[in-house]
Design a protein that fits this description.
Elements lengths: L2 H11 L3 E3 H6 L4 H10 L3 E4 L2 E3 L7 H8 L4 E2 L1 H7 L11 E5 L5 H5 L3 E5 L1 H4 L3 E5 L5 E5 L1 H10 L6 H13 L5 H10 L3 H11 L1
Parallel strand pairs: 5-6
Antiparallel strand pairs: 1-3, 2-3, 4-5, 7-8
Helix pairs in contact: 5-8, 8-9, 8-10
């Protein structure tokens, strides 16, 4: 199998996307890789990530590849967990305090920052509509996040999310209350739960 055929196969397995790192790990040199990129007329989607012009781009997965430390949160996490019926208009991610979000913000992404000790609490993974795994927060962490950021989120969005969460069979109220204590939204959460439960 030629190196171009090898790269074609790699690209096919990634639905028209190819990363420089994948090619190098497959033993293909950079000059051959860039020759392939020019020959196949691939577009550079981000640093080290190329896509064919006729492929559908999984922008969530692309964002994850571009910024692996960004965790999908808030409205996007609500969407992943079926706690909202609205697809988010813009992506929201959470990064550790100290990360420079300038490029992400310039691309229209809502960036939230959190202290390092709270960053991984509730971390799980979710599937994008294209079937790729990306990091996201669990339902309980997401509820706490939207309560913490309620001034920046539509009231209707977080009220609907809370109602949906309370109706679910797979809810974990104990975990939710533990998280609420850590994120200092316990009083607000209890006020809502008194009405909804």
């Amino acid at each position: 199998m030629s190196q171009f055929q090898q790269l074609d196969k790699l690209m096919e397995s990634q639905n028209g996307m190819l990363r420089t790192r994948q090619a190098l790990e497959a033993g293909i040199s950079k000059p051959v890789f860039y020759q392939f990129v020019r020959f196949r007329d691939l577009e550079q989607a981000s640093h080290g990530i190329y896509i064919s012009k006729d492929s559908w781009v999984d922008t969530m997965y692309l964002l994850h590849l571009r910024c692996p430390q960004a965790i999908f949160s808030h409205e996007v996490a609500l969407y992943f967990h079926d706690l909202t019926d609205r697809e988010p208009l813009k992506y929201s991610v959470t990064v550790k305090t100290g990360y420079n979000p300038t490029k992400l913000k310039a691309d229209g992404i809502q960036v939230y920052t959190i202290k390092e000790e709270l960053y991984e609490i509730g971390l799980t993974s979710a599937q994008t509509p294209f079937g790729h795994e990306v990091p996201a927060y669990d339902k309980e962490r997401t509820i706490c996040d939207i309560l913490r950021s309620r001034n920046r989120i539509e009231t209707q969005t977080f009220q609907d999310a809370l109602k949906s969460y309370v109706r679910r069979k797979d809810k974990d109220l104990r975990r939710l209350l533990q998280y609420a204590k850590l994120f200092r939204v316990e009083i607000i959460l209890n006020n809502y739960l008194k009405v909804l439960l």
